[in-house]
Amino acid sequence: MAEPVSVDIPHKLGREAVRARIEGGIGKLADLFPGGSVTEHHWEGDTLSFTVSAMGQRVASRLELFDDRVHAVVDLPPFLGLFADKIRAKLQKDGPSLLR
Which CATH number fits domain 5-98: 1.10.3470, 3.40.50, 3.30.310, 3.20.20? Predict the structure, then answer.
């Protein structure tokens, strides 16, 4: 397993508003990966665990909601570990748009 990609995405919306926006745009999470699609997702308290299928790989991910930020962790399989820096950069750049 490659080193997980972790990113904090700041916001000023509050936990409930962020949760509603994430729930309304769950499909957008897969856009972080070329050809990706969300295959499963579930909430445990303020943490959304989901799996994205991309490039023949399954990527386990989670979003932990806080009042002022969302902490995203993407557990990349070894093959996709080669793209960790690009995925981190895309998440930092496009992550805030997922909350709009």
Answer: 3.30.310
DSSP string, 26-37: GGGGGGGSTT-E
Q: How far apart are CA 10 and CA 83, in angstroms?
A: 23
Residue 40's pLDDT band (boundaries 50, 70, 90)? Answer: very high
CA–CA separation, 33 and 16 (whole Å): 26
Range list of H helices, 15-98: 15-24, 78-81, 84-98
Q: pTM for the complete prediction?
A: 0.88
Q: Where are the domains of the chain?
A: 5-98
